[in-house]
Amino acid sequence: MISALLAAQNPDGGWGAHAGSRSWTEPTAWALLALHTSDSDPVPLRRGVAWLRQAQLSDGGWASSPGIGDRCWVSAVVALLPEDLLGPDEHRHALVAVRAGAGALPDWTDRLRQWMLGAKPQKGPITQGWSWVPGTAPWLVPTALSVLALRKHAGASAENRILLEHAQNYLLERQCRDGGWNHGSTRALGYESSSYPETTGLALLALRGVRSAAVERGIDRAAQHARNCQTLEGAYWLRLAFFAHGRTTQVDAPQRSSADNREQALAMIVERCLAGEELLWKN
Questions:
Q1: DSSP assignment of the chain, as one string?
Q2: Which of 77, 118, 183, 196 could disulfide-link to 29, CB 3.0 to 4.6 Å?
Q3: pLDDT at 157
C-alpha cells in the first residue's frame, strides 16, 4: 500500500484522487499524514510539503486545489499534519485559518429566519460549527475535522476551549433520532433524517473523551452500521471511532480490489492509529 501511494504522487509533488489525476489539497494532506514516519523516504515528503506550501493562501488556509476558490474546509486536514513536517510558520498560520473558519454564533436575524422557515427553536447550549466554505451554513464533516485539528495541535487556550465546546454542542445537537449522525440536518423535507456510517464514525471520533448518554447511543448506532458498512471510508471512520472510545467492535468492510489515493491513505492512518500512534489525536 505504501508503494502504491508513493507511485501515485504527481510530478508536481501533490496527489490527486487517483493516480495520474490533478493534484488536490485533501488527498495530498492525507497521503503525507499516512506516509510521515521517522524512517520514511524524505524525498516524497519534501515534494509533497513543497506543493502544500506553495498552495497555502495569504490567510493561512487552502483551497480545494490551487486556483479553485478561496480557503475552505480542507485547511483542517492540512492542519492535522505534524508541525515539524509542514513547518512552524505554515502550521501556525494553518491553525489561524482553522479557527477563523468557525461560523459566527447565531444572532436574532438567524433565529428569525429559522422561525420563518418553520424550524424549531434551539434548546440548550449555543452551538458553533464549521462550513465547507466561509460564509455558508455549518456541516458535520468540516466541524468534526476542525475539532480533530484543534484538539491535536492548538493547545488548551481559552479560545480553543470555547471553540471546542461550541463544536461539541453542535455535534450533539445534530444527532439523528436513530442515534447516529448524517451530514448536518436531523430533519429534511419534513421527515427524520437517517444517519450514515461515515458521518457517524467521524462525529464519534470528534467526540472522543465525551461521556454522555447521547454518545453511548451513537456508539450503539455505529455498531449497527458496522455490521453492514458499504464503503471503505465508512469502515475506516467507524474503526477509528470504536478505538477512540475504547471499544473493540468488529467492522465489516466491503471487499474491493482497489482504492483511490485518499482511501489508501486513510487505511494506513487507521492501522497506525490502532497501533498506538497519535496521528489524529494526542493522549
A1: -HHHHHHT--TTS-B-SSTTSPPBHHHHHHHHHHH--TTS-HHHHHHHHHHHHHH--TTS---SBTTBSSS-THHHHHHTS-HHHH-HHHHHHHHHHHHHTBPPPP-HHHHHHHHHTTPPPP-SS----BBSSTTS-B-HHHHHHHHHHHHHHSTT-HHHHHHHHHHHHHHHHT--TTSS--SS-SEETTEEPPP-HHHHHHHHHHTTT--SHHHHHHHHHHHHHHTT---HHHHHHHHHHHHHTT------PPP-S---HHHHHHHHHHHHHHTT--SS---
A2: 77
A3: 80
Which of the pair, 114 or 21, is modelled with greater confidence? Answer: 21
Q: What is the pTM of this model?
A: 0.90
**Rounded to the nearest 5°, which phi and psi values hold at 93?**
-65, -30
Specify whether the CB–CB gap between 146 and 61 falls below 8 A: no
Confidence of residue 103 (pLDDT cuts 50, 70, 90): confident
What does the pLDDT read at residue 71?
A: 95
pLDDT tens sequence across 121-158: 445 555 689 999 988 889 999 999 999 999 998 777 88
For 281, phi and psi rounded to 5 degrees? -160, 165
Distance between CA atoms of residues 167 and 62, nearest Å: 21
